[in-house]
Amino acid sequence: MSKLNKDILFLIFEELQDNSKSLFSCLLVNRLWCETVVPILWRNPWSYNGINYSNKNNLFVVITCYLFDDIKEFITEQGIQLPSKKSLLFDYLSFCRSINVSTINNVISIGSSLAYNQFYIQQEFYGLFMRKCPELKYFDMRLIKHQIFYFPEANTRLESLCELKCDTSIDSAYFYGLSRFCQHIQRLIIINIDTKPNHGIVKLIEVQKNLKYFEWKDDFDDDYLKEDPYDIFLHALEKKADSIDHLRIFFRIVFNIEHTLLQNILPKFHKLKTLLIDDYLLFNEEQLKNLVYHDLEILNIEFNKLNVISSIIENGGGRLKKILFRPYDTIDFEFNDNFNESSLNFIRKIYENCPLIEYLSIAFSPSKEHFNEFEKLLKICKNLKSLLLVILNIDMIETNEKILENGEKLLKILINSAPTNLKKIKFYDDFKFSLKNLEEFLEKWRGCPLSILTSDSIYESEDYKKLIDKYKNDGIIKDFRYESYTHLINYHISHNV
């Protein structure tokens, strides 16, 4: 492999671009590998997991090597520690296509703890970045202090921006400045930490010509708002409905705000491939008929009855691969209605309309009819990889014997009907597995090595641990973990979207 030519190596390393550990190892093989992998690593050198950038002296060295001598002299006079002069093996910044303000601030803080000194080096860095970087693709501007659109050549760099991450604490004037140049953003992620309406963000949305991915996430503590920050940006977003194919909205519960506008505009986003809404949206029957997404692949609508999710599934184009939600929140919404009937209908809609489903959240009662329909789902949905299961009898409190019986039924169904692709199962609520039944299940399991997550502490006992360790050693269990329900659910959703 060390004799592969540079073009082949580049294609291989491109496939590893999200695996920083492997790419860093490739640097050490030989000069050719190093020359090929450096441009890939330096596209976005500020975003590698597991790196403490505030201690990353080598990045600080690279940045300061680019500074002009007179600037270095001035910086030194201010008491900022600069490394000894070194020549660089590569023109690193010429490969860079990204700015992450928070990470760059951490790197620059290595030189000085004084705010003024840090501000000055940051300013010099952005200036040289605009000179060296051929194009800017990714910009995380949270904590930004510098109006970089005023730097020479900034307009040329900003015109190529594809992804922007920002927050609503940034002054509207900053977004007005960006709106002059950044009109081809495809991914826009907004963290809402200031509850006042931000008209600059609205303007930035309005000028976009090819916005495909939009994410809004509330991150504030107020339960009551003086002003509604949502309507102005939702009206702007509505105008982009024909281009957006990934929509993620995470609204915090605010008691004096109703999100009726979001309900009304959702049917207009007919090209969606991803729809994730974390909000109390109560759709009427007419609205449900209009929620038609023929290209939808990922669906997660929280705090809704199962019939809402079922309607979207039925109106879809059969391309759904991921249906993710917090089942217990759905059960709470169904509690005063006919949950048993709704859950049966939901299971049927899955196996009738989702032949490609890979990741699924599902909640149902432990009746014979529900188990039969669930088994049919497993037999039809052959691509299923990950399953979050909640079995709950809302009509009565189950005895321990009945809960163990539910567990036995479930394990038999999984043995007989689970697709061979199934490799991760999360269990919750009215079923437990006896030591005997769990051993029989693991002995007969013939699919992928299983990762099992459960919220029941019974599996922390010594007997169960011994059994689980045995089948880990045999390669049947990949992982078996006990987690709280909240952590289990959040992990399931966050790691599958």
Note down, in words, how this protein is organized.
By secondary structure, the chain is an alpha/beta fold. The chain has a domain at 282-441: Leucine-rich repeat, LRR (right-handed beta-alpha superhelix). Helix content is 42%, strand content 14%. The chain contains 21 helices and 14 strands. The chain has helices spanning 6-15, 20-26, 31-41, 57-65, 69-77, 101-108, 115-132, 154-159, 172-179, 199-206, 231-238, 260-265, 285-290, 306-315, 327-334, 339-353, 368-380, 400-417, 435-444, 462-473, 485-494; strands at 98-100, 138-140, 163-167, 187-192, 213-218, 246-250, 274-278, 298-301, 322-323, 359-364, 386-391, 424-429, 450-454, 477-482. It has a 14-stranded parallel sheet. β7, α13 and β8 form a beta-alpha-beta unit. The longest helix has 18 residues, at 115-132. The radius of gyration is 27 Å and the shape is globular. The two termini are 34 Å apart.
Uncertain residue segments: none
What would the CATH topology of the domain at 282-441 be?
Leucine-rich repeat, LRR (right-handed beta-alpha superhelix)
Largest sheet: 14 strands, parallel
Question: How are the strands of the biggest sheet laid out side by side?
Answer: 1-2-3-4-5-6-7-8-9-10-11-12-13-14
The total count of helices amounts to 21
Amount of helix? 40-55%
**Shape field:** globular
**CA-atom Rg in angstroms:** 27 Å
How many angstroms separate the termini?
A: 34 Å
**Strand-residue fraction?**
5-15%
Derived structural class: alpha/beta
Count of strand segments: 14
Q: Regarding CATH, which class of the domain at 282-441? A: Alpha Beta
Q: Report the average pLDDT across residues.
A: 87
The CATH architecture of the domain at 282-441 comes to Alpha-Beta Horseshoe
